[in-house]
Amino acid sequence: MGRTYPENVYGKPYSKSQNPFADNTLVEGDNVVQSQRFRVVVADINSGKTILAAVANKKYRIIDWTMIAYGGAAGTSTAVTILATQSSGVALATVAIGTLTQSSIVKPTSSNVTVLADGASNVANDEETAITVGKTDSTLDTCTGIDFILTYTLEDA
Predict the structure, then answer these.
(1) Greatest Cα-to-Cα distance within the chain, rounded to the nearest angstrom
(2) pLDDT tens by residue, 59-86
(3) d(Cα 4, Cα 19) in Å, to the nearest integer?
(4) Domains (range + CATH), the chain
């Protein structure tokens, strides 16, 4: 796309793979990986909270996530979920309450975590749809809240 890179010691330009940040610019169509932490209190999880709002002509692809309960262990509810839309509403991740003990780091590969089959939790979600968090069954309580750390891209639709 017309990018030029500084020359290496042999007088040849670096390739993008050797120095991907050489020109420190983004070109239309580049997908930038972003990581963001959301501190969500229990009341907001119970009511369902949008943590990544829908963006016109864009779609989210979740690459990785982390959940950490703070202010106590999560209790009462059956699970905490990260929700999205892929033709219909889906739970990208479902974490059993017993896994969310205070300060424990919960990842997609942790025990008592369910993700979509065949890597579908990591495909691009529908255009102009949000990423939300919630709970299943009873009211979530005991902890103050849960930190959600999402690594994602925002892609052209």
Answers:
(1) 65
(2) 999 999 999 999 999 999 999 999 999 9
(3) 11
(4) 1-29 (no CATH), 34-156 (2.60.120)
